[in-house]
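Sequence in, structure out.
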Amino acid sequence: MFRLLLISALAVSALGAKLQTRTPRLDGRIVGGHDADIKEYPYQVSLQSSGRHICGGSIIGPNKILTAAHCTNSFSADVLTIRHSSSNRGTGGTVIQVGKITQNPAYDPLELNNDVCVLTLTENIKETLSSKPIQMVDVDAKEGDRKAVCTGWGANISGLFSYKLQAVELDEFNREQCNQIYDGRITDAMLCFRSPGKDSCQGDSGGPLVVDGKQVGIVSWGYGCGDMEYPGVYSNVASLRTFIYGQLD
């Protein structure tokens, strides 16, 4: 976790103001959310390094986890595990070793474009009420005015870390307006969502953004947390499906 934050800080220092709004959501909070039970969101997992939560992820196959590329960019598979089937990020459920990290070859760590990664586990996840794969959004899904739920762990609005899974409801934000706010940095591989007093944040990175039971986004980056001036930015699953499905064989 510290390593990811350090690399991000060095990148910002080297590139100046251009990247200051491109802050990966590495370590922090669901803002304005509420406690949730893993059985409501059985696809959610905690991605961990040496037993410590660093990011979220979602189950997309028996031994496949979808997350953000910036979550794995500085790690080797042998130090990464996932915890599934638990509402608590540090206890319960089942821990499985990551065997392989496959980042999108088009991932740009400076622009955070194509921010997607598929993890292959060393063993399969047993499907139960607390652990089930989530479907991907249709490739031709219509954008605009969608209502989504984002889940993850981390600190709450008070800044205290939460061991209980959190969920927050968010509204889709107009792509063109979001692009203006972020000075033309929103690509086709990104989506923007926000709601008053609600947001995803660091530590929710890599976690799922879900609309009507299908994953539409992956928590990626943004400026601040819960700041209505700056929507949260998510990797656009619909535009990244070719890469994602290519890893499921």
